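quick one before i forget lol
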Amino acid sequence: MVPASVGFQCPECVRAGNATVRTARTGGLRAAGRRWGVVTLALIALNVAMFVVTAVSAFSVGNSPADNQRSPVFVDLAQWPAGVHYLDEWWRVLTAAFLHIGPVHLAMNMLALLIFGSELERQLGRARYVAVYLASALGGAVAIQVLGDPNVVVAGASAAIYGLLGALGVLMLAGRQDVRGLLTLLAINVFISFLPGISLLGHLGGLVAGALAAGVLLLVRRRPQFQVAGVGLLAVVLLVVALTVPTLTVLNL
């Protein structure tokens, strides 16, 4: 007989019981998805894939893959306010959010997306998280399109990530949580945004749009079936503004 937690068991019973126990699988994509969020990992994969595509495109025309911004694909997809306004290249306000200039830019944004995106996905769920992410990206595009230099090309997921921070801040305030750490992080990043080559307008536009998206979620929290639609409507409004309102620089000309 084999000692058990309650009494004794015969060896044959123990072997039969062990044969029916399945060993849990702790690795693989499913485990990563549960830990970091399926949507967050998918967004990271999409951004990395676009970087690879632009790097290969740059190499195909004789440039270094590290200078992926010097590729035909990057030139055709990055946000160029004058191109959006004069050439009706509307897709640029969306595709630019999935492009990055160099591997360092990509790595920094993807690390931030992994940290903050996974937390927001856990709180909001997949559908609401996607809606907030897209609205934030479009908010940055609107700020660049309306207030930016029409001849400066801009790209990156930073606007969407700032929007996630804005949404997270609103949710923390609504939950009466301490936001001093988040505000300090935002202050540091906004200060860094004043450095040359960084789009302050895109960051601030994404931050405001993300906060507004979280506000919409809170306003209709008693009717969750309307939450995604509400944020989606905000994203549509931002897209329309980005595509129809010319930059102030163009107006002044």
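fyi The beta strands are 2-3, 8-9.
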